[in-house]
Design a protein that fits this description.
Structural class: alpha+beta
CATH topology of the largest domain: Alpha-Beta Plaits
Membrane topology: Multi-pass membrane protein
CATH architecture of the largest domain: 2-Layer Sandwich
Number of strands: 25
Largest sheet: 10 strands, antiparallel
CATH superfamily of the largest domain: Nucleotide cyclase, GGDEF domain
Main location: membrane
Low-confidence stretches: none
Helix content: 40-55%
Strand content: 25-35%
Domain Guanylate cyclase: 490-617
Distance between the termini: 94 Å
Mean pLDDT: 81
Oligomer: single chain
Protein name: HAMP domain-containing protein
Radius of gyration: 44 Å
Family: Belongs to the adenylyl cyclase class-4/guanylyl cyclase family.
Shape: flat
CATH class of the largest domain: Alpha Beta
Length: 664
């Protein structure tokens, strides 16, 4: 096979010298960077497991210790009953004992006792530092009375009564069902109107025949657990949470309340939040990963270290640790930390490595280029001169060289350049004259184009001051603007009270200046709320919402503007007077809108809804905003309105109207 059949690859001398240096540095730095990153990843995995394990252990220790305090208090109270120091039939004695525990303790908020007859006595510590007695006696069944206690724990005043039967509460049922000291399920506290979740350690009390007498209970709020894990320092974006084996949230470092309140007032109920359905994306993703790997939470019996990836591609480390106290608590503690929290330093080191690599690479390139320059400078200069001549730049001279062959070639180039230069001189003169003429023509065209553009912009601005933008566009395109029907629009008429008498006392120019000040402020409000000003007639101002482009909140936008118009008149000092007031009327309904005629046209409205809006203004009162029933229906959810009642409206008979007072 002939060697001439295949083209021989060609390389520049500078490239041939530089590339080996660059490739050597890239390969060496790449291997070092990869090994560094891989070792960093392994170190991060170990560190994440250790950190998450320590945090999980701290949470478990704190929660168990906190819950055991309530169990110890319950055991002590039970011991006092068994020893005869506490008489369960002496509710005053129980009150004093409970008050001492609640008043001096730092964790029990509510210590109580209920019996099989439906009687109940409990003392609850309030957030404001006071204590309350809650009691049901045989004389008050089924009513529970709540008393404020003084600084000595004595009854001070009756606060409220409510229907209450301790035997129906979750804490009582748990003790009665198991028949020994245990924990209740998590449930909403009755004393907090079902808006606080908690859990209760409970202890049943039996007589000598092993018959149930009653149950001792302590309310433990879950907010204390939430506060603790919320203040744990995990990492920048780390989270921790506790769940039941059922999957419901117990506490979270990022979710203030592990439940949702449904309803209002006395009908409020609490709905537990399942961690797998949480609004928190990290809690939700972690829980769903646990369910995917273990099928259910009950199968997690030992501590687990996990690493998983979310749908957005982020990696997380998770530690799951079972939490049990031997008395009924069986929860799972979960600590989750994003990989990025650990990788920040490694990424910074990688960036530093890359910078150093780039510096080393730059130095290698500079040295290679410099070496190539020393070798190839004479040839490179000759090549550059050749390229310049080929591009038409004939003002080139090749410098003399110490290399004979290159010096001879350089003299030949210089002689050729001189001949070409003389040949192109005549041609250049004729082209230069033509270029100057073209430039003058282009300048005149650009100047005229700029003048036409300015005139067009001025005309469009004038047209937009008269008509809405959409109507103006239609007129420019089709030279016609047929009237349109709008099913829902809200019209506002405003009138300055006493303008006629005011105009008789003022100079015409002063009067016009004052009106311009007021109406200019109103014009700014139309722009603010996206409304369409229709016209001004003397001291009357007309504006509409919901056209020429329909919008669902036209009534709200008009109401906001009316309230702002009132506020402006109250807070601004017009040159007309310091005490002038507006009379404003608003109506909502269907209208016809468009432009009529071909000269001095304006965008206007027609329809019964317009006439009624005008009547609302003329039949209104100074300083008030009067609206019709149709407008009232649009605003009643978000605004404060007051019924004026039925009024006689010219041409309409009796109409029910309302005063618009403010936003809710």
């Amino acid at each position: 096979m002939s060697a001439g059949k295949f083209p021989i690859p060609k390389f520049r001398l500078r490239t041939t010298i530089v590339i080996p240096f660059v490739l050597e540095i890239i390969v060496a730095v790449g291997i070092v960077g990869y090994l560094s990153f891989r070792n960093g990843q392994q170190a991060i995995n170990t560190l994440a497991d250790k950190l998450n394990g320590e945090i999980s252990a701290r949470i478990e220790q704190h929660v168990i210790d906190y819950l055991n305090q309530s169990q110890d208090t319950l055991w002590l109270s039970n011991a006092n009953i068994l020893s005869g120091n506490l008489n369960l039939k002496d509710f005053d004695g129980l009150r004093r004992y409970f008050w001492q525990i609640v008043h001096k303790g730092n964790f029990e908020g509510y210590l109580a006792y209920g019996n099989e007859q439906g009687e109940f006595v409990g003392v609850e510590y309030q957030d404001d530092g006071t204590s309350q007695l809650k009691i049901v006696t045989s004389a008050t069944i089924p009513k529970r009375e709540t008393y404020l206690l003084d600084a000595q724990g004595e009854r001070q005043q009756l606060l409220q009564t409510a229907k209450y039967d301790p035997r129906t509460r979750p804490w009582y049922k748990a003790a009665k069902q198991l028949g020994k000291t245990t924990w209740s399920e998590i449930y909403p506290f009755f004393s907090s109107k079902n808006t606080v979740l908690g859990i209760s350690p409970v202890s049943p009390i039996f007589d000598s025949q092993n018959n149930l007498i009653g149950v001792l209970s302590i309310n433990v709020r879950l907010t204390r657990i939430t506060d603790f894990i919320n203040h744990l320092s995990i990492s920048t974006n780390g989270q921790s949470f506790i769940i039941e084996r059922s999957g419901n949230l117990v506490a979270s470092s990022t979710i203030p309340q592990p439940f949702r309140v449904i309803g209002e007032g006395d009908n409020r109920t609490v709905e537990r939040i399942a961690a797998a359905q949480s609004d928190n994306p990290i809690v939700k993703a972690t829980t769903q990963h646990l369910l995917k790997q273990f099928n259910d939470f009950k199968s997690i019996q030992n501590g687990q270290n996990l690493k998983f990836q979310t749908s957005d591609g982020s990696w997380y480390y998770a530690q799951v640790l079972p939490m049990k106290d031997g008395r009924g608590i069986d929860w799972l503690t979960v600590v989750v930390v994003p990989e990025n929290d650990f990788m920040d330093q490694i990424n910074q080191n990688n960036r530093n490595t890359i910078v150093l690599c780039l510096i080393a690479l730059s130095i290698a390139v500079v040295l290679g280029i410099r070496t190539a320059y020393w070798i190839s400078r004479p040839l490179l200069q000759l090549a550059q001169v050749s390229e310049q001549i080929a591009q038409g730049n004939l003002d080139q001279q090749v410098n003399t060289s110490s290399i004979v062959e290159i010096d001879t070639l350089g003299h030949s180039f210089n002689h050729m350049t001189a001949q070409l230069k003389s040949s192109f001189a005549a041609l250049y003169q004729s082209q230069e004259s033509l270029r100057i003429a073209n430039e003058e023509l282009e300048e005149r065209v650009e100047l005229r184009t700029a003048e036409l553009r300015q005139e067009k912009e001025r005309s469009e601005k004038l047209l937009l001051n008269v008509l809405p933008a959409s109507i103006a566009d239609r007129l420019k395109q089709t030279n016609e603007s047929p009237a349109e029907y709008f099913e829902n629009a809200t019209i506002l008429f405003a009138d300055i009270v006493g303008f006629t008498s005011l105009s008789s006392r003022m100079e015409p120019m002063e009067l016009v200046t004052g009106l311009n000040q007021i109406f200019s402020a109103f014009d700014k409000l139309t722009e603010k709320y996206g409304l369409e000003k229709i016209k001004t007639i003397g001291d009357a101002y007309m504006v509409v919402g919901g056209l020429p482009i329909a919008r669902p909140d036209h009534a709200q936008a008009i109401a906001n503007m009316a309230l702002d118009m009132q506020a402006y008149m109250r807070n601004s000092h017009s040159i007309l007077s310091e005490s002038i007031e507006l009379r404003i009327g608003i109506n909502t309904g269907s209208v016809i809108a468009g432009v009529i005629g071909i000269k001095k046209f304006i965008y206007d409205l027609w329809g019964d809804a317009v006439n009624i809006a005008s009547r609302m203004e003329s039949h209104g009162q100074a300083g008030y905003i009067q609206v019709t029933s149709s407008t009232y229906e649009c605003l009643k959810q978000d605004y404060v309105l007051e019924a004026r009642g039925n009024i006689e409206v010219k041409g309409r008979g009796e109409m029910m109207t309302y005063w618009l007072l403010s936003k809710r």
